[in-house]
Amino acid sequence: MSSRTFRVWRGEAGAGDFETFEVAVNEGEVVLDVLHRIQATQAPDLAVRWNCKAGKCGSCSVEINGRPRLSCMARMSTFDADETITVTPMRTFPVVRDLVCDVSYNYVKARQIPSFTPAAGTEPGELRMQQEDVQRSQEFRKCIECFLCQDVCHVIRDHEENKENFSGPRYLMRIAELEMHPADTADRRVIAQDEFGLGYCNITKCCTEVCPEHIKITDNSLIPLKERVADRKYDPLVWLGEKIGLR
Ligand code: SF4
Ligand code: F3S
Ligand code: FES
Q1: Within 13 Å of residue 171, how many CA atoms lie on the same side as its CB?
Q2: Res 128: pLDDT
Q3: Rounded to an integer, what distance in angstroms lies between the CA atom of residue 31 and that of residue 95?
Q4: Ligand 3 centre distance from Cα of residue 38 (Å)
Q5: pLDDT tens figures, 180-227
Q6: Mean pLDDT to the nearest integer, 159-177
Q7: CA separation (Å) from 142 to 3, 60, 68, 213?
Q8: I need a labelling partner for 113 at 20 to 30 A (CA). Which of 101, 107, 172, 185 fits?
């Protein structure tokens, strides 16, 4: 057992400060274990959100030394022995208390996406898909909704004013998944750009870097979606159709 220094942000809705704790750490522990020890021994009212402690529920997202991470997957052994560990709530979302954020923005955006739309009259069990199409969707469905990609994206991280018009990488990925689904009949290219803010994304790839499920958000969903939007925009038939009011 060794002793480590933790700086933890404490406070509510914009008003708060760091509190420093000297805390014991055992071999094999993760940051969430240490936060729980602080809660058990020094700050019983410390607010920390978590659930599975296995990297699968997406609840324990925080920023550790400035980097968005799951606290249950951040091994203490990966930090230098004399390094102070600073833990802050996700910066993109309003703080409820201490390390707990209000992430309801994400659920609002999720609800705005038109749902899967198979051809009219399709009966259950009738759809057939190529394995390639199944695998593409499966990558996106590994998402645990930790919202770390949403937290890190610069479009909304320091720009509250963009939240209305930008759904963030997680939900642009959902639109891409549906747009690339062979049995979905809806054309989502116009809404991706006009209603969900695809054009705000300038492919910085920070979302991909922080994803704990290692989903290639940018390369496999955002860029292909941008290509589809561009294909539609510069399609001469679409241009002509819009001119004469058919599309
Ligand atoms: Fe988290 Fe990755 Fe899903 Fe974003 S795409 S919410 S980072 S699991
Ligand atoms: Fe944001 Fe990811 Fe695009 S971080 S700018 S959505 S590549
Ligand atoms: Fe579930 Fe960390 S507690 S992902």
Answers
A1: 25
A2: 86
A3: 20
A4: 18
A5: 999 999 999 999 999 999 999 999 999 999 999 999 999 999 999 999
A6: 97
A7: 36, 17, 18, 7
A8: 101
pLDDT tens digit sequence for 117-152: 999 988 888 888 899 999 999 999 999 999 999 999
Q: Are 225 and 140 in contact (CB under 8 A)?
A: no
Give 61's strand partners.
70
Residue carrying the six token digits 């199409």: 133
Torsion of CA 64, 38, 16, 151, to 10 degrees: 30
Distance 37 CA to ligand 2 centre (A): 35
In terms of DSSP H, where are the helices of the chain?
31-41, 104-112, 131-140, 148-152, 154-157, 168-179, 189-194, 206-210, 223-233, 236-243
Region 15-25: mean pLDDT is 96
Probe target for ligand 3 pocket from 51, 62, 145, with the most ligand atoms within 8 Å of CB:
51
Q: Whose CA is nearest to atom 3 of ligand 3?
A: 53
Residues 6+ apart with CB under 8 A from 174: 110, 113, 140
Distance 183 CA to ligand 3 centre (A): 33
Tokens at 110, concatenated: 């999720």
Give the residues surrounding ligand 3 with Cβ less than 6 Å away: 50-53, 55-60, 70, 72
| Amino acid letter, 3 | S
Between 232 and 191, the more confident residue is 191
ipTM value: 0.99
* Residue-level pLDDT at 125: 85
